[in-house]
Design a protein that fits this description.
This protein is α+β, with helices and mostly antiparallel strands. The protein contains five helices and 17 strands. The chain folds into two domains: 8-75; 77-260, Umud Fragment, subunit A, CATH 2.10.109. Helix 2 packs antiparallel against helix 3. The protein is elongated and about 85 Å long. The relative contact order is 0.16.
Length: 262
Amino acid sequence: MSPKDSGATDVLAHLSFSTILLIAAGLTVLRMILLSLDKSSKPDPTKGSGARMLAEICESLAQVGVLVFLLIRPYVVQAFYIPSPSMERTLLGHDAGPSPYSNEVYKHTVHDHIFVDKFIYLHSNPQHGDIVVFRAPPKAMPGSSPTDRTFIKRCIGIPGDTIQIVEQNGEDYVERNGVVLHEYHNPKLDYSIHKPMDPSLNDSFHYAYPAPLHLGKNQYFVMGDNRNESNDSRYWGTVSRWRFIGKAEVIFWPLDRIRFLH
C-alpha cells in the first residue's frame, strides 16, 4: 500500500524546499509593492485600503506557507490518505464494487485520511505494533518512483528479533523469538488481524519462510494487517531504520471513522 499525500493537490504536497522559499519571497515582494501603492495613494486613515488588505494577506500566506511546509510538514505531522486495502480492517482503502484484490464486494467507497506523527522517530525507534509509514526499498516495487514507494504497514519485528512464518492447523502465524503471535481476535494485543494468513501464499515468500529471519542492527520487519493482500517484508525483506517517515496516529476522515490508531 502506498499512502498518498492528502491535500488540495499533489503539486502542493510535493513542493520542494527551494520552491517554497521562492513563493515566500515572491509574496514578500508583492506585499512590499502593495504597501508602496497604499502609501502613494494617500488613503483615508480611518479606512483600510484594498492594497493594504492584499498586502496583509500576502504576509499571512508567506508566514503560514513557511510554517506548514518548512517546519510542520517535514518534522511534525503530515496527512495521508489510504488508497488500497492492505491494512484493512484497521485502515480502509477501497472503492465501491468488486475488489481487484479479493472476492469481496464493497458497498461503499472508503479511503481513510490519517495524520502521521513525523516527530516521534526523531527521538525514538519504531516498536512492535506501531503502524509505520516508510520509504520502501526499490525491490518492493521495481521500476517505480520513490514517491510511489511510500508504504504503510505494521511493525512486527525490530532489531534483534527472529521472525518466522509457521503453519498451524491449516493457518499461518507469525512466530517472533520462538513465540507464536496469536493475532486473530486476541484481547491481549492492541490490534487484531481480521483474516488468518493463507498458507497457499507461502511459496511466494522470500523472507521468514521457511527459514527464520534474524533482524540485524537497524533492520525492521513489517506486514500489512490484511495479510493475504499485502506487499510487505515477506516478499522483499527488511526496512532500514533511516527509511521510516513516521507513525500513523489518528484517522481524521471520514467523520464516522475518526479514531486513534493501535
